[in-house]
Each structure stands twice: as structure tokens, then as C-alpha cells.
Please model this.
Amino acid sequence: MDYTRIILHVDMDAFYPSVEQRERSEWKSKPVIVGADPQEGNGRGVVASSSYEAREFGVKSAMPISKAWKLCPQGIYVRPNFVLYARVSAGIMSVLRKYADKFEQVGIDEAFLDVTNKIKDYEEAANLAEKIKKDVLNKENVTCSIGIGPNKLIAKMASDYKKPYGTTVVEPDDVKRFLFPLSVRKLIGIGPKTEYALKGIGIETVEQLSKMAVEKLAGIFGVFGYRMHEMTLGIDDSEVTENYDMKSLGREVTFEGDTNDSAVIYGTLDRLVEEFHPEIVKSKILFKTVNVKVRYENFETHTRSKSFDYYTSEMKVVKETAKELMKVFLKSKRKIRLVGVRVSGLKFGEKQTTLKEIQNELSRT
Model:
């Protein structure tokens, strides 16, 4: 296991609500819920994100907006402003990039920084993290938390350890000491169903999971069982990668609870598209293929895609195609734990084909 690297994971604190609170000072320290219109408890759709004040009432991401309203009717509900979030994100990423040997943006609100050659030890890494946090706060007026570790897995888990505005350092010798007391739910990819299944066989902590025979884990959870075992030991050899040659663009989300509710799933697809589409516009990206991804409650994962004869950048094309592709997965009535939507076959800076032109062409074939 390579423990020579020093990796930082920077994770914005309740990013969407924090940006909204930044824009409206009177919303500071108040429960802000970004997502669908609650319509006094009768709204459809989901919570995109909630402020820490709203989380104290139990409001969580991907929760049905109607449930959020029941938990926190006094909250401030606001529809997502993805253009604003993308602009703030771009500013944050430009701040972070200058601190890293290698930089990898992960979604709109988090990034990995490989600083192995920038500093000499973990004490310097901790000082660097504090400098980064202050720099982001001063320039964009939002806060982030930073995890520091010998690989991406540990750094990411550490960034969630002391939120908001926290710094957590996990040196190589402390990996097991950090991981073992944690609930298995803290491991990446383990949701409520898997947690429940593990509790059913007497496993609640990472340490207990680490002692379970990997063959038994694989027998119950398939390929993911092997990855679960690796995570309990802090193993992750993946590199921080610079994505200069972008081949696709998209988002995915894991639901708080597995669902086969088509309204929730379609609403989530719309939200994901609205989240990354500003990046398409800003970067003058054209695409010709739309892809969707589902992961069922048993971790079985499938993808479908549809390609056009033309390049376009229209949001409506992505939304309508994603829903069309998703229909096959919904017919099975199986519960879904993750959905994703992505565009690929990219071109940059050329004239787009409109939705009307595509429809006209399809009507002639």
C-alpha cells in the first residue's frame, strides 16, 4: 500500500444553501432548503440540499420535499439557482487549483488536491488546509471542510468528520485508529439497506466489518463486498487525475432511501441536468449522446444511452432523453438507490443543432 502521498479532499459545507445565505444576509443562521416548491406540504420533487440549521430538523438531501415541509414548515424554501452555483464553484476551484500538484474537481462542490510535492509532512498539510479554508472564505464568502490523508478514500472520509469548517488529519499510522470506531454507514457506498443487512449479521462498526471473511462478504454483496473489505483497511490506490481531456459531463446521486417512485426519480433527473447544464453553456460544450445510470438496491448497476445524428447543447434534449431511457428501468418496479445522467460525444465551441432541427430530422427518417 502506497502511503507516501498526501491528499486533501476539500468539501464545501452545505454548498447550495450556503450560497443562498451568502446572497441574502437575512437568511444567515436560518433553515434554508434548496429544492422543489413544497406547496404547503403538497409539493412533489426532492430536497437538493439543506443548510445545517435545517438539518437540525431532520431535513436531508434527496428527501421528498413534502416530508421536509412536515419536519420544518418554518424553513426558507428556494428553488435551485444553478447558474449562480456554477459561477461560485468556478471561483472556488480557481482558488483551490493553485495549491495542488495535481487537482481533480469532483462535482460542483468538492475536489481532491495532491500536495505531496508541495509540503514535507502532515503538519505542513494541516497548515496549508487552514490557509486554503481562509482563502476560500475571503474570496467567495462560503466555508469548506478539509480532510487530509494518504489516499483519496481516507481524505474524503476525513473531510466529513468535522463539519462545518473543520480540518481532519489522518496520518498513515492512524488510518485504522480513525476508521475502526466508525459506523459502517460512513464507508463510501454503504447506504441504509446495506447498513441494515450488515446489522442483521452483527456488524455495526468498520472494525467488525474488517474482521469478516472477504469471501463471505462477496457472497452476500457481490463485487462490492471486495471493495467494502478494502475500505475497512483504508486501501485506495486511485490517482488524483487532471481531467483536461473531458470526454463526458454529468452528475449522479444516491437516494437517502431506495425508491421506485417515478415522480421522485424523474424529478431527480431534472435536478441533476439543471445542476451540470450551466457547465455546458459556460464551456460552450456540444454533445450528441445522453446516458443514464441506475444502481438497484442490491448494487446491481445498469446504463443506457441514446445518440443523435447532430450535436446540440439544449437542456431540454438531455431531460427528455434521460426520462425516455429511464422508463425501461422503472418498468421492473425494483427499488433504485442511485441515478445518474451524463452527456458524452463532446465537441467544444461549435454551432449547436436545436431541438427543433433534431425533431424535424427524426420526422423525416
Q: What stands out?
A: The chain has three domains: 1-174, 180-232, 248-363. Residues 248-363 form a domain with the Dna Ligase; domain 1 fold (CATH 3.30.1490.100).
